[in-house]
């Protein structure tokens, strides 16, 4: 059996359309998860499911986990039957169709949209050889009510990504107080004196699934302590190692941090050591079966 990607289902129906009255379309009223599928399963699915469930609860969207599992299993069956080893699975949950205005509908019938997309191998050039990262001009707004979630409004990240073309792999984002938060599609880790540090995300940013996997599983397995801290840019510059992570591309070592913002004199900070980063990559490749 062969299939053409992307493959999209809406409420369990292939190639169905989303209503223009859907609140996810009209207001960004929803959340999403982007998962890496590997050899028949989504290895970090429990983390994705938990974050989706918590986010839906915070937004007061009634998530039917049994119905979601039914729709997701049907989509993953296409991958298994087509012998596709790796892909990206994106799950979007919205509040569903509602009238004009911000008032919540009296009856909420969520929309479940699942997309399957092509996926690059885990060991890309960026994974193997590391990346250069620039510091973005855009400052993330603080919004504790939304912090941690992958809600559907990504406008700040889109504007940040528009600041460069392809000369950098990622862009580092600061908040209005100048604290480091994350990158546009990644979480950040700093290695200092054989200890991991990652920014506090209680006021802004996305609490990534791979970030959680590293802090709760991969790092403890290596005996590495990990602290969540308010992180200044100078702290990042003075790191022994830094790396980025997300659930699709895994872990990328950072070779260079470039600060070419209009408000500062351009600087370049280089990192040549990736010892702990490489060890974490090996653990992750084993977990993912890649």
TrEMBL record:
Required cofactor names: pyridoxal 5'-phosphate
Keywords from the named record: Folate biosynthesis, Lyase, Pyridoxal phosphate
Classification via Pfam families: Aminotran_4
InterPro entries, per database record: Aminodeoxychorismate_lyase_IV (IPR017824), Aminotrans_IV (IPR001544), Aminotrans_IV_CS (IPR018300), Aminotransferase-like (IPR036038), BCAT-like_C (IPR043132), BCAT-like_N (IPR043131), Class-IV_PLP-Dep_Aminotrnsfr (IPR050571)
Pathway(s) of this molecule: Cofactor biosynthesis; tetrahydrofolate biosynthesis; 4-aminobenzoate from chorismate: step 2/2
Domain of life (superkingdom): Bacteria
Gene3D superfamilies found in the cross-reference section: 3.30.470.10, D-amino Acid Aminotransferase, subunit A, domain 2
Primary enzyme class: lyase
Keyword Lyase listed: yes
MF (Gene Ontology): 4-amino-4-deoxychorismate lyase activity
Enzyme Commission code: 4.1.3.38
Substrates-to-products reaction catalysed: 4-amino-4-deoxychorismate = 4-aminobenzoate + pyruvate + H(+)
Family: Belongs to the class-IV pyridoxal-phosphate-dependent aminotransferase family.
NCBIfam families, per database record: pabC_Proteo, PRK06092.1
Quaternary structure, from the entry: Homodimer.
Name of the protein described by the UniProt record: Aminodeoxychorismate lyase
């Amino acid at each position: 059996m062969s299939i053409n990607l992307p493959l999209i289902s809406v409420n369990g129906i292939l190639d169905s359309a989303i209503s223009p009255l859907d609140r996810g379309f009209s207001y960004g009223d929803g959340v999403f998860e982007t998962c890496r599928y590997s050899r028949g399963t989504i290895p970090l699915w429990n983390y994705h499911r938990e974050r989706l469930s918590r986010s839906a609860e915070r937004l007061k969207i009634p998530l039917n986990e049994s119905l979601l599992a039914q729709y997701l299993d049907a989509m993953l069956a296409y991958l298994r039957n087509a012998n596709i080893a790796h892909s990206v699975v994106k799950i979007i949950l919205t509040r569903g169709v509602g009238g004009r205005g911000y008032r919540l509908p009296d009856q909420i019938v969520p929309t479940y949209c699942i997309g399957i997309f092509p996926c690059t191998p885990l060991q890309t050039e960026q994974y193997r050889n590391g990346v250069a990262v620039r510091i973005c001009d855009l400052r993330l707004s603080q919004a504790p009510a939304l912090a941690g979630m992958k809600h559907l409004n990504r406008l700040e990240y889109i504007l940040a990504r528009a600041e460069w073309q392809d000369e950098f792999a990622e862009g580092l984002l600061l908040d209005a107080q100048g604290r480091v938060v994350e990158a546009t599609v990644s979480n950040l880790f700093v290695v200092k004196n054989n200890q991991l540090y990652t920014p506090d995300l209680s006021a802004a940013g996305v609490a990534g699934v791979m970030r959680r996997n590293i802090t709760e599983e991969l790092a403890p397995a290596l005996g590495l302590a990990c602290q969540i801290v308010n992180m200044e840019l100078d702290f990042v510059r003075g790191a022994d190692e830094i790396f980025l992570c997300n659930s699709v591309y895994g872990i990328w070592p950072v070779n260079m941090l470039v600060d070419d913002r209009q408000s500062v004199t351009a600087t370049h900070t280089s990192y040549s050591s990736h010892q702990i980063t490489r060890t974490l990559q090996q653990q992750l490749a084993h977990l993912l079966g890649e």
